[in-house]
Amino acid sequence: MFMLSYGNYVGIDMIDCVSCESPYEWVDETESEWEFNSKGRDRNTFNIVAYDFGIKLNILKRLASYGCKITVVPSTWPASETLKMNPDGVFFSNGPGDPSAVPHIVETVKEILGKVPVFGICMGHQLISKALGGKSFKMKFGHHGGNQPVHNLRNNHVEISSQNHSFAIDPASLPNGVEVTHVNLNDGTCAGIAYPALNVMSIQYHPEASPGPGVLDHMIQIIVLFKEFTEMMKKNKPFAAEEEHFQVLQEPLVCAA
Ligand SMILES: NC(=O)CC[C@H](N)C(=O)O
């Protein structure tokens, strides 16, 4: 454990201190509490590898509630090992510190991009953006806390989000093909990107956060990001079409009962 004063962490790898030491399967022990998608839920639907840069429990719960069977791996886990596991998707987590301080992880992300669908949150978003060629910078104050308005450029909605980051991605540094999907309305900074050609999406804020009563969760726009990730994996699965056909065949049986 070490202590750093505010502003003293540029260029320091802080992920190394918080990542897990070896891979493990994550199993949700409180699933009823976090049931967002009970209809048609099947945990075995998507096998995902989640890189742990300091991963938040709520992220694991939300991914599981959308049908993901999750293997959590350390930040140093080689891309080649991940690809050998033949996952349906890879998730890059939130995590502390400067994304420029972990070029070895950016290399890992680069090796994975384009091979399987990918989703990143906060640090994960920054590392994906850097792997695509973008540049990060230290913000003056950062964004910390709830009530951060974000413009979702895809559906033209404003999302009220929870955020906790001190670095951001310069959208001008991103290459052609990368779409800025979300913009922070307070200061115009990049709050999310997508690269549809490579099945990549990432978000700077915390869609898993629960700043208010859980009873309203089904109304919160931002949790659809988890759904979007599973939809992206579903489309990428070679047998996705067959599976849908199977579900259609099952429906009359459900109605008859
Ligand atoms: N919550 C996070 O993942 C933080 C992202 C990054 N470490 C930052 O401070 O900008």
Automatic annotation (TrEMBL):
Pathway: Amino-acid biosynthesis; L-arginine biosynthesis; carbamoyl phosphate from bicarbonate: step 1/1. It catalyses: L-glutamine + H2O = L-glutamate + NH4(+); hydrogencarbonate + L-glutamine + 2 ATP + H2O = carbamoyl phosphate + L-glutamate + 2 ADP + phosphate + 2 H(+). Its EC number is 6.3.5.5. The keyword Membrane does not apply. The keyword Transport does not apply. Residues 50-214 form the Glutamine amidotransferase domain. It is an enzyme of class 6 (ligase). GO terms for biological process: L-arginine biosynthetic process. It comes from the Eukaryota. Keywords: Amino-acid biosynthesis, Arginine biosynthesis, Glutamine amidotransferase. Heterodimer composed of 2 chains; the small (or glutamine) chain promotes the hydrolysis of glutamine to ammonia, which is used by the large (or ammonia) chain to synthesize carbamoyl phosphate. PANTHER family: CARBAMOYL-PHOSPHATE SYNTHASE SMALL CHAIN, MULTIFUNCTIONAL TRYPTOPHAN BIOSYNTHESIS PROTEIN-RELATED. This is carbamoyl-phosphate synthase (glutamine-hydrolyzing).
